[in-house]
Amino acid sequence: MVESFRQTFITFALIGIFIFAGIAFIVQTQTDNSVNGTILDNDIIFTVYNRTNLTLLEFRDNSSEQKGNFESEFPERGFGSLIIFAIVGVGNVFTGMILGVYNIFIILPARVLNISPVVIGTLTSILIVSLVLLVWRVYRTGA
Description:
Blueprint: H1 5-32, H2 43-72, H3 84-113, H4 117-141
């Protein structure tokens, strides 16, 4: 049973990070030992690994830039004003994390196992509806 949305999100994020770290460990070990047939010879794994790696590098650069902007600027307080750029930045980071975990859990196994796009679409729809209902339940109970 799911206890909270926060715990579920942290669990999925950590699983995604460990899967990516495992693939990165295999790639680095094979590169260091000059293996002929590496895991990156598979086009699907190569594409997903490179995209995820580039996305993580972009997140690192963007977060460093936003940290510098946040520390250098002192916004003026206005009546009823919100710092919209901070909300958008956080939204972009969470969206990227969610899409990265989705690619690792759904897209990569689907391409490796050659699963039909109809099945993947159905599973994705069920997952999205379940997440919306979970968010609604958390909001309704106030947890």
